[in-house]
Write a structure and sequence with these properties.
This protein is of the alpha/beta class and 277 residues long. It has one domain: 3-Layer(aba) Sandwich (Rossmann fold). The chain is 49% helix and 12% strand. It has 12 helices and 7 strands. The protein has a 7-stranded parallel β-sheet, with helices on both faces. Helix 5 links the parallel strand 5 and strand 6. The chain is globular and about 60 Å long. It starts with a strand and ends with a helix.
Length: 277
């Protein structure tokens, strides 16, 4: 039976490749992003595309109304849209913090609320939330992003238990370093988050290093997507899976290294010891 899948954040990276592979495998894939223009290459491949801003209730309503008017109903929801603004948390503008939570947490929850009644009515469904190992191993200069992903992991755990009676599976993926535009976007965010008179100006190189960290020896997007599809197509998928370079090692470090020692290692890695000198 062909399933209908809604994927968010498809303008590049994981979402783009996932929508292509789902389409190639015979799924009815709806690829979404805020800008339809960025989805044109997918549309030309025959993939259904929709404008969808996960932070906007009206945008969500419009997208789901279009899907319904096409005679389709969503069997699987893949909450992939997200971004990370890097910078010192104590100085990060409130608007940047709120935007990250709106995109990385509130958006997935809004889509889940909108789709659960229909999934229950049809006898079940599947919700996949793309988290991050950054929600497990917290590093300097990524505090807001790490907080959103940790919150998404916790929300996924609650949803998994609450939706089980309706035969709705909830799965959280915690990627490591995956080839994407994340590093470029994170670096660009510094123009909004690192003020001219920042207390952390002396360690700006450390902040840049954190912004680029996900693109040091990343797992190719194609490889990530193939492993994700293998898990998704299991009759009963795992509740949580980690995929990609660092996805096993980083949580292990967070669990096994004493907190004070780990803090010291991370402060040194990202230059914070220079401020104290």
């Amino acid at each position: 039976m062909s399933r209908t899948v809604l994927i968010t954040g498809c303008s590049s990276g994981i979402g783009r490749q996932l929508s292509i592979r789902l389409h190639e495998k015979g799924y009815c894939a709806y690829a979404t992003a805020r800008s339809l223009e960025k989805l044109d290459a997918l549309r030309q491949k025959g993939i259904k595309v929709l404008a969808l801003d996960v932070t906007s209730t009206s945008s969500i309503d419009d997208a789901l109304a279009t899907i319904a008017s096409n005679g389709d109903a969503i069997d699987w929801l893949i909450n992939n849209a997200g971004y990370g603004a890097m910078g010192p948390l104590a100085e990060m503008p409130q608007a940047e913090i709120e935007r990250q939570f709106a995109t990385n947490l509130y958006g997935p929850l809004a889509l889940t609320r909108a789709l659960v009644p229909g999934m229950k009515q049809r006898g079940g469904g599947r919700i996949v939330n793309i988290g991050s190992v950054s929600g497990i191993l917290v590093t300097p200069f990524s505090g807001a992003y790490c907080a959103t992903k940790a919150a998404l992991h916790a929300a996924s755990d609650a949803l998994r238990m609450e939706l089980a009676p309706f035969n709705i599976d909830v799965m959280v993926i915690q990627p490591g370093a995956i080839e994407s535009e994340f590093g470029n976007n994170a670096e660009a965010s510094l123009s909004r988050t690192l003020g001219e008179h920042s207390l952390y100006e002396p360690v700006k190189d450390g902040i840049l290093q954190r912004a680029r960290a996900s693109q040091y020896n990343p797992t190719p997007t194609v490889t990530f997507v193939e492993e994700l599809l293998r898990l998704l197509e299991q009759p009963k998928p795992p509740a949580m899976a980690r995929i990609g370079n660092g996805s096993t090692a980083f949580p292990l470090l967070a669990r096994c290294i004493p907190t004070r020692l780990l803090d010291s290692i991370l402060r040194r890695k990202f230059g914070l010891d220079h401020i104290a000198e």
